[in-house]
Design goal:
With about 70 residues, the chain is mainly alpha-helical. It is built from three helices and two strands. The chain has a two-stranded antiparallel sheet with strand order 1-2.
Length: about 70
Amino acid sequence: MEDRIIIDPTVCNGRPTVRGTRITAQSVLEFLGAGDSIEEILEEYPTLTRDDVLACLRYSSRLMGNHFVIEKVA
């Protein structure tokens, strides 16, 4: 989906992370959701780039574009 975002079962329990880091896409999105700017995230995580943060947004946007069905299982 996104070459900057990887899923590796040996890194962060298989959660989507920014390539070459142990920073999850979820962490980046939570900072953005809390109102932090991209610049503030880059200060907190100096190994990230602006393109990495934007890749997290694109990744989550593509995931949300999928069709989801909620089923009662038990």
